[in-house]
């Protein structure tokens, strides 16, 4: 009797002193610790976690319909991109969602900050002990073997049952950073290679074995050298993982490779989350230098903005955070740049499905606003962001699998063939997109049972297009290097889109926005079809996918022909 009474008393004390305990339901989980990480032990109770919450948006299906309606060239509303307010009307969470989440937050004495105008993304700070209770989990410390840095993550988390359908994502929880990161391959240019390549330049670089410069790309793809004339066209370049671009390197680059352009041409810096762009000797990053020099250097006279995002990504704060913050920053602009290029990515399997879907939804919103979102397809062939001989099935990259981004693969040689590192394949998160069902089924029937069981035949196929991606000359801290990777391809294609936009704007037409429905219909024949080569695979297989006539998951539709693209977009 006595002991039973005691139990009752203490239960009441618990109920009075603490918020109502809610039933929890498992929300997201991963089966194991991803490769490249090892468990250290429980996270300290008092450590503060900075979490981002995504609320369920009111009308995602309506947003996607609207996106197709303005992006499909055969639609009556093609090019009639949505305003900020129109997109926000689809995105704003329902009132019942807002109040359910707010009630739960205030019950737990948590203050939230809205990261967006509509309040669909919130930020909260919460100690580990409270987070463990709120989400029925045990946050733990993991070590990243490549860097020895420690991060706090969990392998599963729950949310209150009555928030299911309202709270869509808690992040970072089960998404681990990419263990390797994605960086282009950089090679010093030796004097003998220098003289060899310079002698070949005489042929406008249309020979094998030269280093690639803007004029090579201009002649390969018929890209105009004339300056853009419209006053409203813009091009955005993202800068992550402490990658910085130097004005002085750009000047050297323009003097050397674009003598017809004012070498004082610069770029505008936008800083998010404390992102920097220091300009001292030694600060230049390979990736940022490449991305800035092959946008300013090809999209002649299009204003370029370098969006540098901080957040200590190298110490385990994964790329996902900077992608969320970049997209939300752009969506909060009345007139964001109409083209954005990003040469960073992750293996799809490292990112939680809910987080991947939430990011993809942000790209759909940007597409509806008329922004073309370009990403490099990855440098590991079918083995992920980087070549990884240990994979046993093909590893798709993120965000290339998101149908609302345009994924850019790579080529090499003249005539062009697929470059073996060109990332390509099929997503496990998104099904074959509506705009590509014919292209994908034609390709798959062509390969028959090849690679069966190694890839997801019902997934979204990528890349969508390609450009040359090997041996680009880039000035890094004053010295020219040869840089290779699909990191070369995304800025090149972005510049072409920016120049197309310029001519559209000058003709009083709207910009291209989400490109994929156009690329898989009227513009598919505006590409040089790449039918030679393949991408490499996990060590046990000789090749990943082969190129083919038409679309293939190595080079997409092929490489651009600017003249044909102009007529494909009605100019
Ligand atoms: C959106 O932009 C406005 C105007 O620049 C700014 O005041 C506001 O803080 C921004 N909102 C968010 C959520 O960043
Ligand atoms: C958290 O860890 C404790 C102690 O190891 C264990 O009893 C509990 O079941 C774990 N909770 C969850 C949700 O994994
Ligand atoms: C370039 O190299 C490729 C592959 O080795 C070859 O097929 C092609 O003929 C070469 N092109 C020229 C112009 O030498
Ligand atoms: C080159 O650009 C700089 C910076 O915008 C400008 O000050 C200068 O006048 C330009 N020079 C010429 C020759 O147009
Ligand atoms: C990819 O191609 C390069 C040069 O064309 C070659 O050196 C390299 O070995 C190839 N890599 C693989 C994994 O096949
Ligand atoms: C393959 O893709 C489909 C469509 O997106 C998806 O439903 C399925 O889960 C994927 N399979 C695997 C093994 O990931």
C-alpha geometry: globular
N-C termini distance: 89 Å
Number of strands: 26
CATH architecture name of the largest domain:
3-Layer(aba) Sandwich
Distinct ligands, ions and cofactors found in the model:
2-acetamido-2-deoxy-beta-D-glucopyranose
CATH topology of the largest domain: Rossmann fold
Strand count, sense and closure of the main sheet? Answer: 8 strands, mixed
Share of residues in helices? 25-40%
Low-confidence residue ranges: 1-17
Q: How are the elements arranged and paired?
A:
Blueprint: H1 2-17, E1 24-29, E2 37-42, E3 48-55, H2 60-71, H3 84-91, H4 95-107, E4 112-114, E5 121-127, H5 128-134, E6 140-144, E7 150-153, E8 156-160, E9 167-171, E10 185-188, H6 191-200, H7 214-221, E11 235-239, H8 247-257, E12 268-272, H9 286-296, E13 304-309, H10 319-331, E14 339-342, E15 346-347, H11 353-368, E16 372-376, E17 397-398, E18 406-412, E19 417-418, E20 425-431, H12 437-447, E21 459-462, E22 465-468, E23 472-476, E24 479-484, H13 486-506, H14 516-519, E25 527-528, E26 559-560, H15 562-568
Parallel strand pairs: 11-13, 11-14, 12-13, 14-16, 16-18, 18-22
Antiparallel strand pairs: 1-8, 2-6, 3-5, 3-9, 4-5, 6-7, 10-24, 15-17, 18-19, 20-21, 23-24, 25-26
The protein binds 2-acetamido-2-deoxy-beta-D-glucopyranose (6 copies).
Subcellular location: Secreted, Extracellular space
InterPro entries: Peptidase_S8/S53_dom, Peptidase_S8/S53_dom_sf, S53_propep, Sedolisin_dom, Tripeptidyl-peptidase_I
Active site: 287, 291, 487
């Amino acid at each position: 009797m006595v002991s039973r009474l005691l139990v009752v008393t203490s239960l009441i004390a618990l109920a009075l002193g603490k918020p109502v305990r809610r039933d929890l339901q498992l929300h997201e989980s991963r089966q194991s610790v991803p490769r490249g990480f090892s468990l250290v032990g429980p996270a300290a109770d008092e450590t503060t976690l900075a979490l981002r919450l995504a609320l369920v948006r009111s009308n995602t299906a309506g947003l996607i319909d609207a996106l197709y309606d303005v992006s499909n060239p055969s639609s009556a509303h093609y090019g009639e991109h949505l305003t900020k307010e129109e997109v926000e009307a689809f995105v704003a969470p329902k009132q019942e969602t807002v109040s359910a989440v707010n009630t739960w937050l205030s019950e737990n004495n948590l203050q939230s900050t809205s990261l967006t105008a509509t309040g669909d993304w919130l930020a909260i700070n919460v100690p580990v002990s409270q987070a463990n209770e709120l989400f029925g989990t045990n946050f733990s410390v993991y070590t990243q073997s490549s860097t020895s840095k420690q991060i706090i993550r969990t392998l599963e988390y729950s949310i209150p049952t009555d928030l299911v359908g309202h709270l869509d994502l808690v992040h970072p929880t089960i998404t681990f950073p990419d263990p390797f990161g994605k960086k282009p391959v950089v090679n010093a240019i030796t004097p003998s290679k220098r003289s060899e390549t310079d002698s070949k330049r005489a042929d406008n670089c249309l020979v094998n074995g030269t280093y690639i410069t803007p004029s090579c790309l201009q002649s390969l793809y018929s890209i105009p050298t004339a300056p853009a004339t419209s006053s409203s066209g813009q091009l955005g370049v993202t800068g992550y993982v402490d990658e910085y671009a130097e004005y002085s390197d750009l000047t050297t680059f323009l003097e050397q490779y674009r003598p017809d352009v004012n070498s004082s041409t610069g770029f505008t810096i936008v800083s998010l989350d404390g992102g920097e762009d220091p300009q001292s000797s030694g600060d230049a990053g390979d990736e940022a230098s490449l991305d800035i020099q092959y946008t300013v250097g090809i999209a002649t006279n299009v204003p370029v903005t370098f969006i540098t995002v901080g957040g200590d990504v190298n110490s385990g704060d994964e790329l996902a955070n900077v992608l969320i913050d970049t997209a939300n920053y752009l969506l909060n602009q009345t007139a964001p740049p109409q083209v954005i290029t990003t040469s960073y990515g992750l293996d799809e399997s490292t990112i939680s499905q809910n987080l991947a879907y939430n990011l993809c939804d942000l790209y759909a919103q940007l597409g509806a606003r008329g922004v073309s979102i370009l990403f490099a397809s990855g440098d590991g062939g079918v083995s992920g962001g980087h070549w990884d001989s240990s994979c046993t099935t093909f590893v798709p990259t993120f965000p290339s699998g998101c149908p609302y981004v345009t994924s850019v693969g790579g080529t090499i040689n003249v005539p062009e063939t697929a470059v073996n590192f060109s990332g390509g394949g099929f997503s496990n998160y998104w099904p074959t997109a509506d705009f590509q069902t014919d292209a994908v089924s034609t390709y798959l029937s062509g390969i028959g049972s090849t690679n069966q069981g190694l890839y997801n035949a019902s997934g979204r196929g990528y890349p969508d297009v390609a450009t040359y991606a090997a041996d680009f000359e880039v000035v890094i801290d004053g010295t020219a290097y040869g840089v290779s990777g699909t990191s070369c391809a995304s800025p090149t294609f972005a510049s072409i889109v920016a120049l197309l936009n310029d001519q559209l704007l000058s003709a009083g037409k709207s910009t291209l926005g989400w490109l994929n429905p156009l690329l898989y219909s009227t513009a598919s024949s505006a590409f040089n079809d790449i039918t030679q080569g393949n991408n490499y695979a996990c060590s046990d297989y000789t090749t990943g996918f082969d190129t083919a006539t038409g679309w293939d998951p190595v080079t997409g539709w092929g490489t651009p022909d600017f003249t044909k693209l102009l007529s494909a977009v009605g100019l």
